[in-house]
Amino acid sequence: MKICKHCGMALDDQTMFCPRCGSASFREGVGHGYAGPSLPNDSYGSPNPEAMYIQQKLKALRHRAELPLFGGMIGISSLVLLFILFRSSSILDSSGYGGFFGANPALALFLTVVGMMTGVVGILYAVVSLIVSYYMLYAQTTSGAVQVTPVNFPEIYQKSVEYAQMLSLPYRPEVYIMQQNGVVNAFSAWMLKKRYVVLNAELVDIAYMENKDFSSVYFVMAHEYGHHYFNHTALWRNLLIMYAESFFPVSMAFSRACEYSCDRVAQLLTHQSGARAMMVLTAGRHLYKYVRTEDYLQNLLNRHRADEEVFRWIYNFFSSHPIMPYRVQALLDPSGKSGRIL
Fold first, then answer.
1. pLDDT at 37
2. Which end of the chain, N or C, is less surrounded by CB atoms within 10 Å?
3. Domain count, the chain
4. Quick check: is 224 in a domain?
């Protein structure tokens, strides 16, 4: 008999992972049932000393431009929302019938309220559509992916538990592996009382196939956990900026700042620069180990032709992620300062 050090559950000696919290840390014990306090499923209780240290470091890792840009997007979204409501309530004045309804104030008031209600219904429709899209994405993921568990891909599962504990997340994100026709990537998403991360099978290949490179997979997964830590995927956050998403100069810059923030989280959790993981995304899962990062950066960033620099700047300006040279340069910067947004 052994006891899970994390949640106190009593387990058989043959058990490799605690089925309650996913931990692989045990102590000797006697008895049956639970030897410790009852915790909600996927709850992590008080953070351990390492998690507390990481929590202190995380506060300084958010990109300096992220919160100002987020505030700007909230402002833009609020203005759009007010415009919709105002436009809905003043539609009579712009229709040419203002004089007629002016002689019937009760009718004018009624139609004004109807106009405002129409605007409110339109806003609610947009909110419901966003929520439905979240759940449809989860349904698509669970229908076409393999969930990481203590049995399927136990190495990745154990890291998912470890990262959730270090970040003191309220829910351990589920991790799924999905085949994506050769695309090497990953993403994170939100559901009510649930978070999840999807790793493309083409990325996980580098851990289990010829390269046996788990560290790069862990870096990408830790980056996605960073999105959950900073609540980038949360519904409330996306509702606040919903109407500003189409204002690309700000929304794309905000997205790039979020990516830089999560790269720093991944560096802290994995104790690696992450440059090699970026080469996986750039050169592919078979060739990335042959790329020398210093040479890669020199050949791109040391080009001083004005036309190249201008169009590279434009491409980065409209990208949701920092272009790879800027991103790798930020990862390798020993000062740890925020990466280039523009």
1. 33
2. C
3. 1
4. no
Residues 6+ apart with CB under 8 A from 227: 188, 233, 258, 262
Place of tokens 């930020």: 330
Nearest CA to 205 among 146, 292, 140, 284?
Answer: 284
Q: How far apart are CA 295 and CA 87, in angstroms?
A: 56
Calculate mean pLDDT across residues 112-116. Answer: 69
* Separation of alpha carbons 253 and 340, rounded Å: 10
Residue 22 lies in a domain: yes
Helical spans, DSSP H, in the chain: 49-58, 66-89, 98-102, 105-144, 154-167, 201-208, 214-229, 235-240, 248-270, 275-283, 293-301, 306-317, 324-332
**Structure confidence by residue, pLDDT tens digits, 281-290:** 999 999 999 9
Question: 229, 265 in Cβ contact below 8 A?
Answer: yes
**Closest residue by Cα to residue 162 from 147, 178, 148, 141:** 148
Task: Specify the range with the lowest mean pLDDT, choosing from 9-23, 51-65, 178-192, 293-307.
Answer: 9-23
Whether 188 is in a domain gets the answer no
In a domain? residue 27: yes
pTM of the model: 0.80
CA 176 to the chain's CA centroid: 14
Range of the domain at 35: 1-39
pLDDT of the residue at 89: 61
Which pLDDT tens digit goes with each residue over 209-230? 988 999 999 999 999 999 999 9
pLDDT tens-place string over residues 262-317: 999 999 999 999 999 999 999 999 999 999 999 999 888 777 788 888 999 999 99
135, 150 Cβ separation under 8 angstroms: no
Residue with tokens 């994995």: 270
Spatial separation of the C-alpha atoms in residues 193 and 209, rounded to whole Å:
34
* Rounded-to-integer distance, Cα 236 and Cα 255, Å: 16
